[in-house]
Fold these 2 entries.
Entry 1:
Amino acid sequence: MLKRKDLLGLKDISAEEIAEILETAAQMKKILDQNVKKTPHLQGKNVTTLFYENSTRTRVSFETAAKILGANTFSISSSTSSTQKGETLIDTGRNLDALLTDVIVLRSAHSGAARLLAKNVRAAVINAGDGTNEHPTQALLDIFTMQNRFGPLKGLKVVIAGDIRFSRVARSNIWGLNKLGASVTVVAPKTLLPADVAGMGCAASVDLDASMAGANVVMGLRVQNERQTSPPFPSVNEYAKYFGITAERLNLADPGALVMHPGPVNRGVELSGAAADEPNSVILEQVTNGVAVRMAVLFLLTRR
Ligand code: CP
């Protein structure tokens, strides 16, 4: 039974805990199929989203999940937060405690920010993306989507192509997929592979065509331009030519391979428009599944 106060990442969570979240998400998904999408699981609870970086999917997904479960929701962004006036993250968190918040959903540009906040507040903290570190609910919804299609993930080959070095989504997926027995290959130019990739428990390649053989899932990742200090490749056209997922490249994967992307998609860069829209693309299914997964996480963390 999930007994933790916070969800900060998938590196320090067990396969059994992941399974419990996914099983609970499967129950929550049934609520999404109902005509009236409302349950009392979080009635009387206060959920605050504290987003210091831009977001479309994650923020709306958490707020939708919390509202369906009957929670009161509050939303703070960097432009409306008193950190603009010099308040620290810890002081902001302690004030949210004083305002009777039960859950803080934090997105930050700083790796480790969610752990720092969690250590200093009473509220449960959910990491909604911290710098290049982790984005656990994104990986959980990715894994949930794969499991819905393939069943148990043992032996599944997942190719993740794009900016691996600066991607919290790649890290959380690698930790989570490894725990469930999938085999992960990351593909990027050398400048976008993490320096410690050899110790991450996945295969690494600079050759996307060669990596596609036998792939059951092909996941594209955006180039995180906002985290780069110098251009990682000579031109976007050249990057797309060698590392872009196209309909032609998908023909090299296992027939029926899923096309996935956490969004936002940069069409024509990491993923061609045709690949993004092809029948095996589950990009929007991922988004809907994200609501069910976040409902599960919110419920499990507030049960105590
Ligand atoms: N996948 C994801 O984190 O998207 P947003 O940045 O829109 O939240």
Note: The first strand starts at residue 46 and ends at 51.
Entry 2:
Amino acid sequence: MSILIAPSILSADFRRLQEEVDSVASADWLQADVMDGHFVPNLSFGAPVLKTLQTDLLLDVHLMVENPADRIAEFLAIGAKHLTFHAEAVEATDARRSLMEAIRKGGATAGIALNPATPIEAVEDVIEEVDLVLIMTVVPGFGGQAFIEDALEKVKAVRARFPRLMIQVDGGINANTARMSIDAGADNIVAGSFIFQSSDRKAAIASLRSR
Ligand code: DX5
């Protein structure tokens, strides 16, 4: 199982965002946490900001927004190659399916995210159709929060049922919690403050990969 590392730019220094993106070139994905101030109490950034960034990393857009279907076109237009929407924001199965179809038509893969309080049962309808499940290990909205270890039970349960499904974890990730997450079955690791608060980003990213 190869492990993908996705630095979250929410924790980057926005005064020099391109330099910050350049500093994590040894990662695999670049995660952009798009927050609308409604689905989560924070407001972050949108496509106009992301459009300015140059990177060879795969642009992963984590949509912490109330109406993700209204937002995907702008991110697909700037080259996002993976978009994750929240199960709590799109509850109807047909809406989830049409959203995934629209994302894929735009040339990206589609993921669904579960907040810590949301059980796996909430996505039983589409879990065999998504390209990725994002199991949040913090309550979404802010970087720098503490890792919620209980969320690893969900990682283990999903991995046991779906050996090939990509499982992403996000929130409170450092070298220790990354190892716990990988041991539980995660293969895509998002980290914000751990990477961007490190002076040696390459070493920080490498430390997340190691078992
Ligand atoms: C929280 C975001 C996370 C966050 C991760 O809502 O979805 O991606 O930026 O930041 P750290 O790694 O600092 O917890």
Note: Residues 8, 10-11, 33, 62, 138, 140-145, 170-173, 190-194 surround D-xylitol-5-phosphate (CB under 6 Å).
